[in-house]
Design brief:
Layout: H1 4-26, H2 35-43, H3 45-65, H4 70-97
Helix pairs in contact: 1-3, 1-4, 2-3
Length: about 100
């Protein structure tokens, strides 16, 4: 099974998560609940985005390198499900923060 497309989607969701997190935190809509990432945010947007992108690239590389293994295929599916849920939480957070919920 070729994991290139699902891994690309996973990386894209990682970027969307990063951008939405920046938007919600910088506009006071929501705090960053991950203490390490909150520390990076306190240092600035670039350290936060740099680490988030590096983490996503590393994960994508590992998953693509090990794509012949069943664990990688299951891992991509699980990660996609979790990230889709995370994006759903971001959407509801944004709607609530803007007073629509």
């Amino acid at each position: 099974m070729n994991l290139a497309r699902p891994v690309f989607l996973l990386f894209a969701l990682n970027l969307i998560d990063a951008v939405l997190t920046l938007a919600w935190v910088r506009n006071g809509i929501a705090p960053e609940s991950n203490e390490f990432m909150a520390t990076l945010l306190d240092m600035g947007d670039l350290p936060f985005l740099g680490f988030k992108i590096a983490m996503g690239l590393f994960t994508a590389g590992v998953l693509l390198y090990g794509s012949q293994f069943r664990l990688a295929r299951y891992g991509v599916r699980l990660a996609l499900a979790l990230y889709i849920g995370t994006i759903g939480i971001h959407i509801f957070t944004g709607l609530a923060g803007m007073g629509y919920l």
